[in-house]
Amino acid sequence: MAISQRLVDPYREIKVPTSYSWRDSYHAALLETDWTKMPERIQTAESEIHKRRLMLVQDHGGTSEEREALVGALSGLRVLRMDAASWLERNRPGTAA
Fold this sequence. Notes:
- By secondary structure, this protein is mostly helical.
- It has four helices and no strands.
- Helix 2 runs antiparallel to helix 3 and helix 3 (38-59) packs antiparallel against helix 4.
- The radius of gyration is 15 Å and the shape is elongated.
- The relative contact order is 0.18.
């Protein structure tokens, strides 16, 4: 069973409105199919999310829904990062399958 299957409830719907500035980079990470590109996609998404969180702290803006979505997105990216690291380790040159 993949790490993400153990840590993420498959019946929980993640709602990310299209108006969030960080949404595109987050979706790019989620939809990436090339595991070798995954760490870069995750890093980009995390960076965009952290920038947005900093902006929200500075101006006390945003909505509770966006703040919750940011936390959920970071949690999902952590799981994805673990899965990607596991895949990369298993498929590293010189590693027996």
